[in-house]
């Protein structure tokens, strides 16, 4: 394959079956979010460059696709627009654009592509769909709980069977650091080390914490507490500081408000940190049997909308890793959509088209042979390539008798049916 | 509104009701195209710059959004990628990428955004949805006819009531020029003048043709023939040249193969030219009562796929002006989606959430009050803002009685219903 003929590095063409499978997944998730009263939002593929500039960290900024100025300004080599990097920055912009015209609180979902100039790798693309739902303008714990409920229902609707919400609280994490006498400035790095406990061994993390200047005893005790199955140990620690108690109360409220979910679905997980430091309250992550890493995550991020240039409003939300889920299911449902009916063309073209359109009118996916061969065998091969379930043959003999030969492509069985009865015959 | 808060010039944010209305239209059209055996195709939002370079005319090339190289190459001010300008160039690229892996002929539709750095104006955007269907690899007139049938059904499904296909043939047009002794090199300009006959008066067009060097008598005769209601005059002219006869045969075949459509739906329109000169065979345009200009167009373009860098294959297709149709209908269906049920929160939060989720499970769009006020009046105002049809009140008195007050927001009528009976009560 010549390089020029490939889609650009890190992007994909989606042919028929892929488009259908992806669309079905997006529609499934939308339908769930709609039931929860979330509204869809679609922003342009690009924003003014300044909407992103300074709003993302350096690492993220390097991944932005920038659009060159146009016309006489093209020669300057400068950019003024940037492709959408995520759905959160546009959401903050929209809060500023429409303000009080939006429902309050504003509950919205966005399912659409974002673009990042990341190094392409297995499962990592430069154009991929992000699926976000957020509630802006509510500080109620009900909003946090609704996020989990809605994601729970969406994952079930997507066919993800065995999954758990790991929940924690940023406040609890800060309280934890206080309880262990870890200075504020060392906090981010220590939390970063704890976050590795899902992959690394406790000993490796203890060693890393020691490298970061913690007394070995403190490191051992901290790691021991956060991975203990019995959370009473950590609860005791958290109870010693104000922030710890506030964080614990957040976690307990979230667990209480999701008590209607199957037992074991929502689990207080003290070691769970979430990489992004803009979270301010409860946080969660979803792990599922058969999928690597997490397939969903989110939390409360009360200061973020203002930081991104929007009004100062409390907010919480979450994101579903649809691409990861779709990739995990690719092998499972490789079933493809063929034609319901294929019509051969052996003369009488207008009658064939008219019959085809009667079948289409009753919802059957119907194809007509558009090639040049007048040979039935060649046309049957085409029908077979189209994965047609039924083939209609309307040759000279059939035309004379006013009948159509209906061939079942699975059994090979053939029946002669009067032309006018074909739609009813196939309806069955 | 601060400029920084607006979406970029020529683009739009789509809030809830707009997204729903647009998605419904796209799904409607997709469903029709699927019935005709067309496959969906989604290509990336951008292609390598060289895929577009030299493939479009100068006017179009100036409208391409170019993406700056990334990382260390950003400083060069050079671009290597371009946002999708249309769906045709990517289709030609895909024919080259997948070749024989695609069905033959390849019937595909594409409904998705394209980007053009045009000067924004009323109804002209820099990001807008194009809706194309094309058949690549068939020279059969059945393929041309199927395009019209599919577009016919799609327009009806979209609620466009009163429309006509104006059909002509590029071959017929060339034959016409020959018949009138107009030299080949003057042809494009003469056809350009004739194309104005839908807006300008015949006299104005005759004058323009005279300016272009035609004898006044020839100009009068030509214009008279192409606008005559009785097409016999033009048929006689076309019959005098080989290309004219071939073109006439194309038109007649298309009319014959669409005879199943309502009478008067497909009309031979000798003056109809279509601006783009890549068409090689039958061409069409759709005009509809209540919509300005044409709402759909297309034709056969046998040489184009090769010219755009794909394999040399015959092709035909058409495009539906979905944005224009949606704009024309905007006023008509302003009906908006509110909540089916709004739940107030006056304590017992977990019970409220659980009830909400039972209602969601039966498909009702259900919202829970997420604000901070404990006052019923304030919460009812929220429910009203959400355009809720029904409000559920679960205050202290109701909680004690194990009942819910169900308030019909249209009539104002209130009923007390046992908590467990609420889902069944609302199902009605």
Detailed description of the structure:
The structure is a homodimer. Chain A is of the alpha+beta class. Helix content of chain A is about 40%, strand content about 20%. Chain A has 17 helices and 16 strands. In chain A, helix 5 (about 140-155) crosses helix 11 (about 240-255). Chain A is elongated. The two termini of chain A are about 45 Å apart. Chains A and B meet through helix 1, strand 1, strand 2, strand 3 and strand 4 of A and helix 1, strand 1, strand 2, strand 3 and strand 4 of B. Chains A, B: Homodimer.
Task: Classify the secondary structure makeup of chain A into a structural class.
Answer: alpha+beta
- Rg calc of chain A: 29 Å
Low-confidence sequence ranges of chain A: none
Principal-axes geometry of chain A comes out as elongated
Number of helices of chain A: 17
Biggest beta sheet attributes of chain A? 8 strands, mixed
The CATH C-level name of the largest domain in chain A is Alpha Beta
Percent strand of chain A: 15-25%
Write the CATH fold name of the largest domain in chain A. BirA Bifunctional Protein, domain 2
Q: Give me the CATH architecture of the largest domain in chain A, please.
A: 2-Layer Sandwich
Mean pLDDT of chain A: 91
| Strand line-up in the sheet with most strands of chain A | 1-5-6-11-10-9-7-8
Helix content of chain A: 25-40%
Q: CATH homologous superfamily of the largest domain in chain A, by name?
A: Bira Bifunctional Protein, Domain 2
Q: What is the straight-line distance between the termini of chain A?
A: 45 Å
The tally of domains of chain A stands at 2
Greatest contact pair? A-B, 102 and 101 residues
Number of strand elements of chain A? 16
Q: Assembly type of the shown chains?
A: homodimer
């Amino acid at each position: 394959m010549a390089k020029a003929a490939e889609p650009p590095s890190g992007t994909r063409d989606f042919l028929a079956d892929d488009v259908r499978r992806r669309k079905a997944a997006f529609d499934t998730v939308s339908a769930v979010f709609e039931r929860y009263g979330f509204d869809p939002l679609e922003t342009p593929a690009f924003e003014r460059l300044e909407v992103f500039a300074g709003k993302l960290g350096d690492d993220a900024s390097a991944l932005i696709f920038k659009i060159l100025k146009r016309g006489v300004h093209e020669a300057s080599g400068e950019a003024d627009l940037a492709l959408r990097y995520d759905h959160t920055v546009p959401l903050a912009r929209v809060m500023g654009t429409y303000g009080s015209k939006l429902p309050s609180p504003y509950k919205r979902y966005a399912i659409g592509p974002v673009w990042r100039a990341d190094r392409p790798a297995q499962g990592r693309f430069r154009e991929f769909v992000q699926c976000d739902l957020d509630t802006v303008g509510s500080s109620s714990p009900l909003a946090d709980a609704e996020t989990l409920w809605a994601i729970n229902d969406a994952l079930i609707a997507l066919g993800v069977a065995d999954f758990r919400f790991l929940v924690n609280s940023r406040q609890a994490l800060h309280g934890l650091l206080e309880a262990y006498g870890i200075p504020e400035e060392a906090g981010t790095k220590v939390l970063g080390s704890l976050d590795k406990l899902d992959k690394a061994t406790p000993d490796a993390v203890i060693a890393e914490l020691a490298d970061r200047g913690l007394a070995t005893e403190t490191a051992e005790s901290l790691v021991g507490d956060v991975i203990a199955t019995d959370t009473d140990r950590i609860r005791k620690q958290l109870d010693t500081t104000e922030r710890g108690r506030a964080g614990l109360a957040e976690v307990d409220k979230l667990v209480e408000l999701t008590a209607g979910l199957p037992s074991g679905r929502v689990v207080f997980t003290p070691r769970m940190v979430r990489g992004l430091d803009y979270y301010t309250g409860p946080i969660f992550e979803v792990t599922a049997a058969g999928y690597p890493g997490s397939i969903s995550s989110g939390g409360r991020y009360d200061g973020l909308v203002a930081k991104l240039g929007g009004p100062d409003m409390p907010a919480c939300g979450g994101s579903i890793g649809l691409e990861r889920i779709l990739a995990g299911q690719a092998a499972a449902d490789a079933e493809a959509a063929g034609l319901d009916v294929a019509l051969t063309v052996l003369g009488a073209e207008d009658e064939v088209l008219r019959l085809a359109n009667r079948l289409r009118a009753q919802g059957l996916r119907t194809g007509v042979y558009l090639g040049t061969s007048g040979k039935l065998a060649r046309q049957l091969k085409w029908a077979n390539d189209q994965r047609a379930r039924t083939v209609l043959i309307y040759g000279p003999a059939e035309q004379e008798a006013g009948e159509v030969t209906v061939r079942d492509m699975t059994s090979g069985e053939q029946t002669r049916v009067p032309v006018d009865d074909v739609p009813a015959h196939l309806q069955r």
